[in-house]
Amino acid sequence: MKSGSVDVSRAVEQLKGAALHVDILAGKRNVKEFFPLIVSGNIRHASEVKALRGSRVQFRGKSWDVIRERCGARLDTILTRFTI
Predict the structure, then answer these.
(1) Which domain covers residue 49, as residue numbers?
(2) Counting beta carbons within 10 angstroms of the beta carbon of residue 39, is it exposed (0 to 12), middle (13 to 18) or buried (19 or more)?
(3) Does residue 69 lie within any of the structural domains?
(4) 3 in a structural domain
(5) Which residue spans within the chain are E strands per DSSP?
(6) Contact 40, 6 (CB under 8 A)
(7) How deeply is 65 buried, as exposed, middle or buried, from its count of CB atoms within 10 A (0-12, 13-18, 19+)?
(8) Please, are residues 6 and 48 in contact by the beta-carbon 8 Å criterion?
């Protein structure tokens, strides 16, 4: 993904794996929010954008939309937009 392009299916699979690890690490702690975030440069093909917009990641029984941001975006700004 360092080239700026995104292999959407691979990226979403990695997010799903990360969700499993976060669940294990969090244990019995109450986790209210989860942000499956992909940060990338340009997405070159409309089909990739469409696939990404429809992508969701399961975390503790809830389905979360994948968030896509461009490189250089500030994490605090992203989290402010998506927090409850």
Answers:
(1) 8-82
(2) middle
(3) yes
(4) no
(5) 37-40, 56-59, 62-65, 67-70
(6) yes
(7) middle
(8) yes
Reported as a single tens digit per residue, the pLDDT across 55-82 is 999 999 999 999 888 888 899 998 888 8
pTM of the model: 0.76
Give the distance, in angstroms, between the CA of residue 52 and the centroid of all CA atoms in the same chain: 9
**Does 40 fall in a domain?**
yes
As for how many domains the chain has, the answer is 1
In this predicted model, what pLDDT tens digit does every residue of 13-55 receive, in sequence order?
999 999 999 999 999 999 988 999 988 877 777 788 788 888 9
Query: Does a structural domain hold residue 2?
Result: no
How is residue 52 written in tokens? 């990404």
Q: In this structure, which amino acid lies at residue 8?
A: V
The pLDDT score that the predictor gives to residue 1 is: 44
